[in-house]
Design a protein that fits this description.
By secondary structure, the protein is an all-alpha fold. It contains five helices and no strands. It comes from Chelonoidis abingdonii.
């Protein structure tokens, strides 16, 4: 579920949509807000796992030679 921002400038990097959603998910978790842990620690504990897998698949598809024909995964 991508989040689109009208007032935000476009990020030209690969997998920018998934990256932004993963970042927002981590910053909104109770692990970061209530416990005061860093987003990296919360990611290692297993928060936002589906977005982490999507981001990994998107980055991995950049190295895959078949991605030239199929396009990158993600949004």
């Amino acid at each position: 579920m991508p989040k689109y921002y009208e007032e935000k400038e476009e990020d030209g990097r690969a997998c920018a949509g998934v990256r932004e959603d993963l970042r927002q998910c981590l910053l909104e978790t109770p692990c970061v807000i209530q416990e005061g842990k860093s987003p990296r620690q919360c990611l290692k504990e297993g928060h936002c796992k589906s977005l982490q897998v999507s981001f990994f698949e998107c980055k991995r598809s950049m190295l895959d030679a078949r991605a030239r024909f199929r396009g990158r995964k993600g949004y």
